[in-house]
């Protein structure tokens, strides 16, 4: 794929009775080189499990982030203590404004697992500081390649942001997703930034019942 490539238009499919929908995942990469960006860097961050889950919820709940919430606290704690994994955060006048999480599982390769800012901090250049830090961190880990993914539930601006930051598309994939609110991973009030067709009392009742039976990780993230 060329640097200017954009995926073909995507038409989401839904299965309302199962709260299921299709999602397109776009994978991007860039070489890790030494550069200077005037946007600056974020601050290295060493969160404990509760601080991490609070940040994950504040940044990701509007977009239905749930991968981490499906893991147990023990797994997340182990990941956070892994020297191959690094985190950074940005702050604004309100305090915490966003975070980025990087891991290097293979020699020469690093992945941005999560990167985002809270709703009130969008459009202020903080995301670029997070990506700059991920590139710096990847270089420190000896990586020659940094990659990440975005999907059709993320902000419509995410793909263009990553491309302007130097990433290029190398693959796309379609996935079938069961709404994480229906799985009890997020509460009924999450996902306000994602346009899905199920609304109203029936959906709220289904999500609330699932949340009541949801994981300890999900509940601890949502209640802080």
Shape: globular
Q: So how many helices?
A: 6
Q: What is the name of the CATH superfamily?
A: Gcn5-related N-acetyltransferase (GNAT)
Task: Report how far the terminal alpha carbons are from each other.
Answer: 43 Å
**SSE class:** alpha+beta
InterPro entries: Acyl_CoA_acyltransferase, Bact_Acetyltransf, GNAT_dom
Domain N-acetyltransferase: 43-201
Pfam family, one: Acetyltransf_1
Keywords: Acyltransferase, Transferase
Keywords:
224 residues; eight-stranded mixed sheet; 29% strand; globular; N-acetyltransferase domain-containing protein; Bact_Acetyltransf; acyltransferase activity, transferring groups other than amino-acyl groups; acyltransferase; GNAT_dom
Descriptive account of the structure:
InterPro entries: Acyl_CoA_acyltransferase, Bact_Acetyltransf, GNAT_dom. The protein has 224 residues and is an alpha+beta fold. It is built from 6 helices and 8 strands. The chain has one domain (14-222): Aminopeptidase (3-Layer(aba) Sandwich), CATH 3.40.630. Strands 1, 2, 3, 4, 5, 6, 7 and 8 form an 8-stranded mixed β-sheet that branches. The chain is globular and about 50 Å long.
What's the gist of this structure?
This protein has 224 residues and is α+β, with helices and mostly antiparallel strands. It has 6 helices and 8 strands.
């Amino acid at each position: 794929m060329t640097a200017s490539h954009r995926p073909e238009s995507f038409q989401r499919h839904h299965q309302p009775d199962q709260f299921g929908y299709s999602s397109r995942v776009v994978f991007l990469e860039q070489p890790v080189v030494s550069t200077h960006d005037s946007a600056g860097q974020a601050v290295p961050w060493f969160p404990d499990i509760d601080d991490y889950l609070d940040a994950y919820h504040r940044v990701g709940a509007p977009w239905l982030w749930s991968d981490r919430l499906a893991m147990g606290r023990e797994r997340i704690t182990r990941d956070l203590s892994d020297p191959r994994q690094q985190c950074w955060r940005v702050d604004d006048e309100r305090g915490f404004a966003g975070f980025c999480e990087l891991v290097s599982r293979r020699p020469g390769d690093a992945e941005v697992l999560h990167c985002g800012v809270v709703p009130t901090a969008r459009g202020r250049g903080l995301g670029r500081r997070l990506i700059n830090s991920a590139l710096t961190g990847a270089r420190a880990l000896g990586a020659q390649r940094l990659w990440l993914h975005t999907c059709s539930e993320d902000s419509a601006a995410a793909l263009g942001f990553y491309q302007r930051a130097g990433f290029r598309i190398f693959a796309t994939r379609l996935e079938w997703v069961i709404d994480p609110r229906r799985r009890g991973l997020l509460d009924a009030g999450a996902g306000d930034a994602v346009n899905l067709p199920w609304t109203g009392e029936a959906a709220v009742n289904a999500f609330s019942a699932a949340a009541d039976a949801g994981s300890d990780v999900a509940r601890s993230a949502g209640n802080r």
